[in-house]
Amino acid sequence: MADVSSSQVPEQVDTGVSELQRLKQDLHAYRELILPLNKVLEWEKTHYPAILLGGITLLFAIIWYLEPSVLTTLSLIGISLCVVDFVVPTLSSYLFSSAEWTVVQERQFEGICVRVLNAKTHMSNIKNALLILKRDKPKAYLLLMMGAFAVLAWIGSLLDNLLLVYLLVAFLVMVPGLRKHGILQKVTGQLSEAISKLLKKKEKSAPKSKTN
User: Fold this and answer.
1) pLDDT at 207 over 60
2) Pairwise CA distance, residues 28 & 98, whole Å
3) Long-range contacts of range 191-198, CB-CB < 8 Å, 24 or more positions apart?
4) Mean of the pLDDT values across residues 81-93?
5) Residue 27, CA distances (Å) to 14, 43, 129 in order
6) Transmembrane ranges (predicted)?
7) Rounded distance, CA 114 to CA 12, Å?
8) Contact at 8 Å (CB) between 40 and 159?
9) CA 191 – CA 172 distance, rounded (Å)
10) Cβ neighbours for 108, distance < 8 A, ≥ 6 positions apart
11) Which residues are paired to 11 by β-bridges?
């Protein structure tokens, strides 16, 4: 899967503005908040992972204690997003000026936007791969999807809903740091290597079973 670089971002035909520039414009009002948040997510200091997990654990502990309904939870999330969407740009315009924004910060901000576009590209590639598999090998696609959903249903029957959401949110929040420090690449590499070895063993054993 090819990564998106600042020089290889597809251009919008109707506006002539690159996808990267459009994303930078959309996030322009939040850039002063995005940079320090990115430092925390990427574990630039050793205590940042503990802070992230501690904050998430505290939040879910409050939810577990109060036991709000699903509608109340969604409403509170919506209210929080609306407040952030209004407060952050307003405070940024008062506290920060464009003259204080340096070239180094602009490069860091652009790098974050590039990684967001890379994630979007990876998700699109996975979707396209599944569509191609469905078109070319429908039986394999059906077995893959049925197996994946069966595993998810089995996991869901073992764990509480709130615990599942907590584990999912904790994993997603820790992904940037795991990726930055090479832990995620190491684990995925080991998994892909184990799967490839398993497939090679099956291919070697298949002719023997036919001859017998």
Assistant:
1) no
2) 11
3) none
4) 83
5) 21, 22, 30
6) 48-66, 72-97, 140-156, 162-178
7) 16
8) no
9) 19
10) 35, 38
11) 18
pLDDT digits (tens, 9 = 90+) for 139-184: 888 998 999 999 989 988 888 888 999 999 999 999 888 888 888 8
DSSP 13: T
Q: Which residues contact 5 (CB under 8 A, 6 or more apart)?
A: 114
Supply the pLDDT for residue 56.
94
Give the tokens for residue 34. Answer: 């995005």
Alpha carbon dihedral 186, 187, 193, 198, in 10-degree steps, equals 170
In which band, very low, low, confident or very high, does the pLDDT at 79 lie, cut at 50, 70 and 90? very high
Contact 5, 64 (CB under 8 A): no
